[in-house]
């Protein structure tokens, strides 16, 4: 099957198969999108309007992954220990992952559990890279990783037959992105993700990461965020290909690794620890408890 990029984008924009965001969630996202400092009390009140988001968020923050010295009892505590920007991005990531879980699609070939592990692997790798670079709000990068591939989940919901065909092409050694371009007239899951970001009013940094994690040199803004997620996604893609037993021509960008001041020894260290870390974090985090 072949389809034009315009047709794919049109379906994504107009479909009723994808979830709609409730007004209270949209209001929370708009509040977070504002560049000025957010009043923590107002943020907490807004969170309380969104189902059990507060409880779900605190449960996951206290899960063990975030290596906190004490139990976090409130959103204010979370901001103190993780930083406002990290908490903001985690809130958005949890909301979007709950609205658009990786098992929402209908592909016969895609193993949603394995693909979720790729997303989690990207989050963990991005977190480790940010930590290596001395970035203070490193958990913001963990949040980016959780939702960097929302376009692929949307593709699975709206065009499961394309996801199946992409997988069949991957088995022949062609990378996922190249296979998508072949079938969808140059369109990729990153383009679809960009449409979702616009549809749901997600902040520009998230939209840029979603749009450019496969084309980091094309990003005009948030270049550091995009480069980190690009390398993290690449590391996790190689891990994912082993999980699903395919071997494609996908490779890491040494140019981006050099731009970040990293070396292959560090990349290989992440690659070695990633499988065990993914299994551990997969047991620690629970998105199913969020009820909107």
Quick synopsis:
The protein is mostly helical. The chain has helices at 5-14, 23-33, 40-48, 53-61, 75-82, 84-99, 112-132, 139-147, 150-158, 160-170, 176-183, 189-199, 204-212, 223-243, 254-259, 264-284. The longest helix is centred in the middle third of the chain and has 21 residues, at 112-132.
Please characterize this protein's 3D structure.
The protein has 292 residues and is mostly helical. It has helices at residues 5-14, 23-33, 40-48, 53-61, 75-82, 84-99, 112-132, 139-147, 150-158, 160-170, 176-183, 189-199, 204-212, 223-243, 254-259, 264-284. The chain has a single domain (5-284), classed as Orthogonal Bundle (Hypothetical protein af1432), CATH 1.10.3210. 65% of the residues lie in helices and 0% in strands. Helix 7 (112-132) runs antiparallel to helix 8 (139-147). Residues 18-216 form the HDOD domain.
What is this structure's SSE topology?
Blueprint: H1 5-14, H2 23-33, H3 40-48, H4 53-61, H5 75-82, H6 84-99, H7 112-132, H8 139-147, H9 150-158, H10 160-170, H11 176-183, H12 189-199, H13 204-212, H14 223-243, H15 254-259, H16 264-284
Helix pairs in contact: 1-12, 5-6, 6-8, 7-8, 7-14, 7-16, 9-10, 9-12, 10-11, 12-13, 13-14
Q: Regarding CATH, which class?
A: Mainly Alpha
Secondary-structure element string:
HHHHHHHHHHHHHHHH
Low-confidence stretches: none
Number of helices: 16
**Named CATH architecture:** Orthogonal Bundle
Largest sheet: none
Oligomer: single chain
């Amino acid at each position: 099957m072949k389809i034009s990029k315009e047709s794919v984008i049109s379906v994504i924009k107009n479909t009723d198969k994808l979830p709609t965001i409730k007004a209270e969630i949209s209001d929370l996202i708009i509040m977070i999108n504002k560049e000025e400092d957010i009043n923590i009390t107002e943020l907490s009140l807004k969170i309380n309007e969104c189902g059990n988001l507060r409880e779900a968020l605190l449960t996951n923050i206290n899960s063990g992954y975030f290596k906190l010295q004490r139990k976090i009892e409130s959103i204010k505590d979370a901001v103190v220990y993780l930083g406002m920007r990290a908490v903001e991005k985690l809130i958005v990531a949890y909301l979007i992952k709950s609205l658009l879980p990786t098992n929402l699609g209908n592909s016969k070939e895609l193993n949603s559990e394995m693909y979720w592990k790729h997303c989690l692997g990207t989050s963990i790798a991005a977190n480790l890279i940010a930590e290596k670079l001395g970035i203070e709000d490193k958990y913001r990068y963990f949040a980016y990783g959780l939702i960097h591939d929302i376009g692929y989940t949307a593709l699975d919901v709206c065009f499961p037959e394309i996801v199946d065909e992409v997988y069949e092409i991957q088995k022949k050694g062609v990378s996922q992105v190249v296979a998508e371009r072949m079938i969808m007239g140059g369109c990729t899951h990153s383009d679809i993700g960009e449409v979702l970001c616009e549809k749901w009013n997600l902040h520009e940094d998230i939209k840029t990461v979603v749009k450019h994690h496969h084309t980091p040199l094309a990003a005009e803004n948030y270049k550091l965020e995009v480069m980190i997620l690009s390398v993290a996604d690449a590391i996790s893609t190689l891990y994912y290909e082993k999980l699903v037993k395919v071997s494609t021509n996908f490779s890491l960008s040494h140019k981006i690794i050099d731009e970040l001041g990293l070396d292959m020894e560090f990349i290989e260290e992440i690659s070695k620890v990633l499988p065990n870390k993914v299994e551990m974090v997969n047991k620690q985090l629970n998105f199913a408890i969020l009820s909107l």
